[in-house]
Amino acid sequence: MIRVDAVWLAVQPLDMRLGTEAALARVVGIFGAAHPHHAYLFTNRRANRLKCLVHDGIGVWPLEGASKQSLTRVQLDALVLGLPWQRLGDAGIIRTI
C-alpha cells in the first residue's frame, strides 16, 4: 500500500488520454513540484472521470479512478462517491461557499 499524506485537486480539467509523463508535467506546472507521498487528482471536462497520480517517494504512479486545492480525507471520500465535496467543512458540516 502506498502511503498518501496529502491529496491535491487540480481545478482545470485534464485530457484523460494523456500519459503519465504528460500528466506529471501538468502536476509540476500547476503545483510547482511532485512531492513524495502526495496524490494529485484531475478530472475530465465533464467531471465524470478521475485520474490520480501518486508519488511514492521513488516514482509517480498513475491511478485511474491553473488552480489547486488541498482536500481533506472526508472531502476526498465525498468526491470519489460523487457527493458535493466542495461544501464539506470541518466535522462534515455542509455549508455554502
Explain what the structure shows.
This protein has helices spanning 20-31, 73-81; strands at residues 6-10, 38-43, 50-55, 60-64, 68-71. The protein is α+β, with helices and mostly antiparallel strands and 97 residues long. The chain has one domain (6-92). The chain has a 5-stranded mixed sheet. Helix 1 links the parallel strand 1 (6-10) and strand 2 (38-43). The longest helix is centred in the N-terminal third of the chain and has 12 residues, at 20-31. The protein is globular and about 35 Å long.
Q: Return the structural class.
A: alpha+beta
Question: Unreliable runs, pLDDT <50, ≥5 residues?
Answer: none
Helix content: 10-25%
- Percent strand equals 25-35%
Mean pLDDT: 77
Read across the widest sheet, the strand sequence of neighbours is 4-3-2-1-5
Count of DSSP H/I helices = 2
Number of domains: 1
The whole-angstrom Rg is: 13 Å
SSE order, as H and E? EHEEEEH
Largest sheet: 5 strands, mixed
Kindly report the oligomeric state of this protein. single chain
Number of strands: 5
Instruction: Give the CA-based shape.
Output: globular
Distance between the first and last residues' Cα: 34 Å
SSE topology sketch:
Elements: E1 6-10, H1 20-31, E2 38-43, E3 50-55, E4 60-64, E5 68-71, H2 73-81
Parallel strand pairs: 1-2
Antiparallel strand pairs: 1-5, 2-3, 3-4
What is the gist of this entry?
The chain has 97 residues and is an alpha+beta fold. It has two helices and five strands.
Features:
97 residues; alpha+beta; 2 helices
